[in-house]
Task: inverse folding
């Protein structure tokens, strides 16, 4: 058996049992259309069973010492990294991203497991001076309880570990509902966790083709104490409303509309490379992908020239092929959205610099595209394209750039390139975003708090802040001393 077939699991995991169902749904390779596997299409009843299993596993799981939980997480991390190549190939086949990016995602996703294996041992409460001579104040940090993770297809592995590693470290069992396009990576991860020795019921994976039915259970069942969602803003709003009925805690990692600002004094080569990495990674299908390039007058033409040259060099193809930089889009709807944004921008006076059409490879492959002279009334100004379209806007001064960057209901990631240190501070402080990258095109790391403001979300993932999302504070007043 090769590493890849060993990782190809076609059953869901509920209460420590690999579960099949009468109804199944296909998982296809977006590069070839090939059906890779059929996985169980579970129902609301299965989801309730998974929640019950997690709830039953909770007392023993929270009683384990932090060090015992850390050892299991460490074992999971080592297994994920030992299977980096097999997991990466599986991910490329079900999701489409180039193999180099998939390998990077396995390492990035695993880094959360490693980090929280360490951080699990440092969950600390506090003792405070009492409010009377005979009183003392104790503050405990306790695990919140069963966590339900609902995750997207664009990062099939990392969005799961970014939620589950801190939850498990804090003492919370999990129920995972992976995206219907990419359940295979989730199931492979669960198999590796099982091999690492996680007890039955601590990790459950509910695969389903009808996410609303499962989402309804996970957001309304009182035994679920926390929902952690990564996905689109409309679905996040709906889930948040559903959580209100049981006053459930929720973390929301939602959509973005990232500006990438290039000032006149920027290092042009570095800015172009940053833009390529930030815009075209994962075919433009990441929440922190640049959605709008804002370029100052004095550097506008030079930047466009250089960008067009670099974009023309991007090799499009099956992510398994050597040298491919851009794979297919996830599905036909994704292609339709990119095309509608291009059409709208060109109809309203945008200038096509390169690309603009479906790629000759057919299917859901699309040409990397650059459109210049984009203005505020075009759809790309306010909507997340989630595809390989780089729209370039022009601006005159710093105040205008900051105003344009902030003119959106989103506030996830923002990027800018400049050299003047006063400008760097002004712009950094003026951007209403949860994350700002200065002279950098990629900012995700397990060491920093990831998350957005405004309609981009609630809560943070990564760093010690990501662990606190899975704990509750308990204040104990000790009197009569
Ligand atoms: P999506 O909202 O369509 O789906 C996300 C998940 O929600 C999937 O598992 C899906 O099955 C499930 N879902 C859909 N409808 C549901 C419902 N009614 N009830 C319960 N679950 C439901 O998003 P997507 O297309 O998979 O992902 C792309 C979006 O995710 C983009 O908007 C992107 O910006 C965002 N995203 C955000 C982050 C972040 O960290 N902020 C990271 C990655 C992706």
Result:
């Amino acid at each position: 058996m090769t590493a890849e077939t060993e990782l190809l699991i076609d059953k869901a995991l509920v209460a420590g049992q690999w579960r099949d169902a009468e109804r199944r749904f296909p998982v296809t390779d977006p590069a070839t259309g090939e059906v890779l596997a059929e996985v169980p299409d579970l129902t609301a009843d299965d989801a309730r069973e998974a929640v019950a299993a997690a709830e039953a596993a909770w007392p023993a799981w929270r009683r384990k010492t932090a060090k015992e939980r850390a050892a299991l997480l460490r074992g999971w991390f080592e297994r994920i990294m030992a299977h980096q190549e097999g997991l990466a190939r599986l991910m490329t086949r079900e999701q489409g991203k180039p193999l180099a990016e998939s390998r990077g995602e396995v390492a990035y996703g695993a880094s959360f497991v490693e980090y929280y294996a360490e951080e699990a041992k440092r969950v600390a409460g506090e003792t405070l001076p009492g409010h009377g001579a005979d009183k003392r104040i104790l503050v405990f940090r306790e695990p919140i309880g069963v966590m339900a993770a609902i995750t997207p297809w664009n990062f099939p592995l990392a969005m799961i570990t970014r939620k589950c590693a801190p939850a498990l470290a804090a003492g919370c069992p999990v129920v995972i509902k992976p995206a219907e396009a990419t359940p295979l990576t989730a199931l492979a991860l669960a198999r590796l966790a099982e091999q690492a020795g996680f007890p039955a019921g601590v990790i459950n994976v509910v695969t389903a083709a009808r996410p609303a039915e499962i989402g309804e259970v996970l957001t309304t069942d009182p035994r679920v104490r926390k929902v952690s969602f990564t996905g689109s803003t409309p679905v996040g709003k709906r889930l948040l409303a559903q959580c209100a009925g049981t006053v459930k805690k929720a973390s929301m990692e939602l959509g973005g509309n990232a500006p990438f600002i290039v000032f006149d004094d920027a290092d042009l080569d570095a800015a172009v490379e940053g833009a390529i990495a930030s815009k075209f990674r994962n075919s433009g299908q990441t929440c922190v992908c640049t959605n709008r390039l804002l370029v100052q007058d004095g550097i506008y033409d030079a930047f466009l020239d250089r960008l067009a040259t670099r974009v023309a060099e991007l090799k499009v193809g099956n992510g398994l092929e050597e040298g491919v930089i851009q794979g297919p889009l996830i599905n036909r709807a994704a292609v339709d959205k990119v095309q509608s944004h291009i059409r709208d921008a060109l109809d309203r006076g945008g200038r096509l610099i390169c690309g603009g059409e479906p790629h000759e490879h057919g299917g859901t492959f699309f040409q990397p595209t650059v459109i210049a002279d984009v203005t505020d009334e075009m759809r790309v100004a306010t909507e997340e394209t989630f595809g390989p379209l780089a729209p370039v806007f022009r601006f005159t001064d710093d105040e205008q750039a900051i105003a344009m960057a902030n003119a959106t209901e989103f506030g996830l990631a923002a990027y800018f390139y400049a050299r003047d240190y006063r400008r760097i501070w002004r712009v950094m402080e003026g951007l209403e975003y949860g994350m700002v990258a200065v002279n950098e095109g990629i900012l995700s790391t397990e060491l920093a708090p990831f998350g957005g403001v405004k309609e981009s979300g609630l809560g943070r993932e990564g760093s010690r802040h990501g662990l606190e999302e899975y704990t509750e504070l308990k204040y104990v007043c000790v009197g009569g001393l």
User: Anything to note?
Assistant: Residues 150-155, 159, 177, 179-180, 211-212, 215, 230-232, 235, 238-239, 253-256, 287, 384, 386, 412, 452, 457 surround nicotinamide-adenine-dinucleotide (CB under 6 Å).
